[in-house]
Amino acid sequence: MKIIIVGATGTIGKVVAAELGKRHEIIGVSAHNSPVKVDITSAASIAAMFKAVGPFDALVSASGGGYWGSFEKMTEEDFYLGIKSKMMGQINLVLEGRKYIRPNGSFTLTTGILAEDPVKDSCNLAVVNAAVNAFAVSAAMELGNGVRINAVSPGVVEDSREKFGPIFPGHVPVSMERVVAGFVKSVEGMVTGQVIKVY
Amino acid sequence: MKIIIVGATGTIGKVVAAELGKRHEIIGVSAHNSPVKVDITSAASIAAMFKAVGPFDALVSASGGGYWGSFEKMTEEDFYLGIKSKMMGQINLVLEGRKYIRPNGSFTLTTGILAEDPVKDSCNLAVVNAAVNAFAVSAAMELGNGVRINAVSPGVVEDSREKFGPIFPGHVPVSMERVVAGFVKSVEGMVTGQVIKVY
């Protein structure tokens, strides 16, 4: 398969790219460090990326961020950081990518445990993760042409334990092996409309 | 209690206003048919509404819409209809309203069964409903001052059976009495951070 990995240089993206790369052709795209670049907060940049890459069989997005910080001071503008990036960035990858995806292809988006188990300062990311989960469930029914879509929702990954452990009190880190397996299940398996929870 | 009901003239809002009005002071606001008006897609309009109404004990939002239609033709712009209205409209009611709400007050937002049980053409509303559910769960931890927040998520209401029944195949309509009870539980009860599912 020809697989686009968006966020191919990130903590999760690079490991997923390495695993899927054993068996498939990988087109890694990221904001800065790839031959084909993409800024997922821009629909025009997403359109240009797909035009450059052409038809493909699977897309994995391990990309997108949001506002992390004080709830008390959070403004509408802060909230739109996550809407434009992790939420609409990933949704736009599907809305535009469906024009190029081959029949029986698949989209795999990334969310996270905050969708249902938020922590302090995570409100914006909790919301956009839940939004993308619901998008995967709902879009799966309507994509057509045998195209599948799932969201992988990881907990705190062991590789990020030092960075995220203290701000996710009581969250039990999950192995990167399990996270990668979630992506493999979505791309190489048959499931669709699933939130693949890795926690 | 002094209770603001946003969307006080809608199918659900008017019944909730009638029930809560038996025991509380109701300030009904809507886009057109109320002394104090509000356009929830505008943060400035929301700010003006709260300024006009002043301190309050509870806010019930039974307002907000989104894009309903062809998934195949759905654009980013269509998707923002729901983001700006039912999602950020309701979230902005909380972000701005927390400046005016009295200690131990409550916010009650409205979502719907599509968040987890979508139907054809409902993708945008499925997503924004799920987003608002996650907001209620997450914001409840951080509001402070004893302020509570919940989302009421109704199924198809019997009163709308004629309109929605055919486009929600296999959904079992719920009584308006049960829906109103969900709002009463949120406003007069003690729960917080809950998605009160009425289906």
UniProtKB/TrEMBL annotation, chains A, B:
InterPro entries: NAD(P)-bd_dom_sf, SDR_DHRS6-like, SDR_fam. Keywords: Oxidoreductase. It comes from the Bacteria. The keyword Oxidoreductase applies. SUPFAM superfamilies: NAD(P)-binding Rossmann-fold domains (SSF51735). The keyword Oxidoreductase applies. Belongs to the short-chain dehydrogenases/reductases (SDR) family. This is Short chain dehydrogenase.
